[in-house]
Amino acid sequence: MGGTMDGTRRQRRGDTRQRIQDVALALFAEQGYEKTSLREIAERLGVTKAALYYHFKTKEEIIVSLFEDLTQPINALIEWGSGQPHTLETKQEIIRRYSQALADAAPLFRFMQENQATVRDLRIGDTFKDRMRGLRDIIVDPDASLTDQVRSVSALFTLHAGMFVMHDLQGDPEARREAVLEVAIDLVTQAHQGARTS
After folding, report:
1. Rounded to two decimals, what is the model's pTM?
2. Residue 184 to residue 33: CA distance in whole angstroms
3. Rg for the chain (alpha carbons), in Å?
4. Fold entry, domain 1-57
């Protein structure tokens, strides 16, 4: 009996943690990171500050945990990609999965964009740059021409631009993501073919 109880309790604790992250991010977006207190986060959640404290002691902890959770798929992607052959299929698949990972983490990336000082203080940006480098190393053929290396890296930045620059563009967000993805895949495909013919 004890075993199952434990499992559900752990599951529920995970959910609370996620709810805290979501509500915190929403409040940060509404009124700014600096102006939001742990007390307000607890109030919006309808829990006591002590209950919140059980999961997170500071706002910083909430952001760092969010960052780790939401960028975990990028780590998994780098691990997967490192074990794959350097084929065009692999690169296209990486771009597709990266596009999805970015879409899932969009609220966090908006936070990073709007709170660059905080992101710097928490060293989140460094971790993110490391992950970007990991992806770049899988996607770029070291023996490709410089132009094709730039094309490959541009595919990654196209996906980023799609997130940051383009929510002002008209149209359905999902259609926009598809269009951005198509351009990114084109770039990787061109670069790959270039590397093969040179």
Report:
1. 0.80
2. 32
3. 20
4. Arc Repressor Mutant, subunit A (1.10.10)
